[in-house]
Amino acid sequence: MTRKKIVGILLFSLIFLDISVSYAKVYIDITSPSARRLPIVIEPLGKTPIAAQIGDILRRDLDFIGLFQLIGERQESENDSFWLSAGAEALIRGKVFTKGTGLTVELYLDDIVRGKRLLAKRYRSDIKGWRQVAHRFADDVVERLSGEKGIFQTGIAFVSRLSGNKELYIMDYDGENIRPVTRNRSINLSPKWSPDGKALLFTSFKSGSPAIYSKELATYREKKMVPSRHMNMGGNWSPDGRKLAFTLTRNGDSDLFMIERGGKTLRRLTSGWGLDVSPTWSPDGQTIAFVSDRGGNPNIYLAAADGSDPRRISFDGKYNSSPAWSPDGKWLAYSSLQSGGFRIYIMKRDGSGTRQLTFGPGNDEEPSWSPDGRFLAFTSTRDGKKNIYINSVNNGKTIKLKATAGPDMSPHWSPFLK
């Protein structure tokens, strides 16, 4: 199914907007790692299976984000004082209606301490869009209470060997709604979302040698991005989507190059002894992080966007790889080989403030930030084979995504898509 058809199916009609639209009061300080969790109730939305499913998604979303304390378990009361006595401060209630293949969902968010309605929404969708309705309202709740965007409508691109080959897939942030991107029965690696979320950049061996391609998700049109007969791989977009940094190998030497989107002229960014791989642009587009073994073992380096002033910033660990910038540009996540295996770390862009986030067992690699900067998706073998996990940067909580029967690997979190 094309992205255009999916969008058509899941097109919501927002009939009425927030009642008492006042964002002066921030209920949750999402920027504070020690912020108090807001006690909230989600009452049953009806007695039908689809109503229960929407309610379950709302509970899972709000529980996942770590900002809420869920009160009660699928209970209902017409008296808000009952929930106040149970310690709740906010309440979600609503109704779900179906007619044929149509779905209408009314959802409300109330501040029951102040007796104030904070949100009133009505969504209309094809019945197949029930999951997206739940994610959308969960995003609305997070934004209304914290002033920041929610991540529940984001996606994660990844590589899976479900079919026996390494193919690309996309899933919702929670591991559900999986759909294939490639079916070329070859080796496809390193998926990277475009800054606007409309395309995936990836490396494929479908023509024999590795080459970088871009695939539009709405039309599934595919384009080879680097006009070179030499091996090129590991591409990454600049923040404005106008340039591409990648590794090109010729005469046994692997260096970083840059090309304008749709251009034909390659510009060398690095040179000299050693392998330079895994380029990734800082959010402001001024700096590129990459991996190089020019000093012996692989380590993380930074350089200006034109390749000048390269400098090493990782010094601990035997093998440091897979750098990933946080959305605010203040941190780099990476994978570091320690005595017990690969672990996920973060450090400030000057190499200071190193902090270990994962502790195994197995190997933890290939970190990718959520667009709000609060979570990292990564590949781990802690259960015996490669699967995708999510780690909370603030509290260290880690969950496993169901994804496919796998092995699954190389996650890349989308930008905000809505």
Derived from helix and strand composition plus strand pairing, the structural class reads mainly beta
- By CATH's scheme, which homologous superfamily of the largest domain applies? TolB, C-terminal domain
E-strand count: 29
User: Numbering strands along the chain, what is their spatial order in the largest sheet?
Assistant: 2-1-3-4-5
Rounded radius of gyration (Å) = 23 Å
Commentary on this structure:
With 418 residues, the chain is mainly β. It folds into 2 domains: 3-146, TolB, N-terminal domain (Rossmann fold, 3-Layer(aba) Sandwich); 155-413, Neuraminidase, CATH 2.120.10.30. Helix content is 11%, strand content 41%. It is built from 4 helices and 29 strands. The chain has helices spanning 3-9, 49-64, 80-85, 130-146, and strands at 38-42, 68-71, 90-99, 102-111, 116-126, 155-160, 167-172, 179-180, 188-193, 199-204, 211-216, 222-224, 231-237, 243-250, 253-260, 267-268, 276-281, 287-292, 299-304, 311-312, 320-325, 331-338, 341-348, 355-356, 364-369, 375-380, 387-392, 398-400, 408-413. The strands form 7 sheets. It has a 5-stranded mixed β-sheet, covered by helices on one side. A 4-stranded antiparallel β-sheet has the order 8-7-6-29, with no helix packed on it. A hairpin with a 5-residue loop joins strand 9 and strand 10. Helix 2 (49-64) packs parallel to helix 4. It is globular, with a radius of gyration of 23 Å. The model is unreliable at 1-23 (pLDDT under 50).
Task: Give the arrangement of secondary structure elements.
Layout: H1 3-9, E1 38-42, H2 49-64, E2 68-71, H3 80-85, E3 90-99, E4 102-111, E5 116-126, H4 130-146, E6 155-160, E7 167-172, E8 179-180, E9 188-193, E10 199-204, E11 211-216, E12 222-224, E13 231-237, E14 243-250, E15 253-260, E16 267-268, E17 276-281, E18 287-292, E19 299-304, E20 311-312, E21 320-325, E22 331-338, E23 341-348, E24 355-356, E25 364-369, E26 375-380, E27 387-392, E28 398-400, E29 408-413
Helix pairs in contact: 2-4
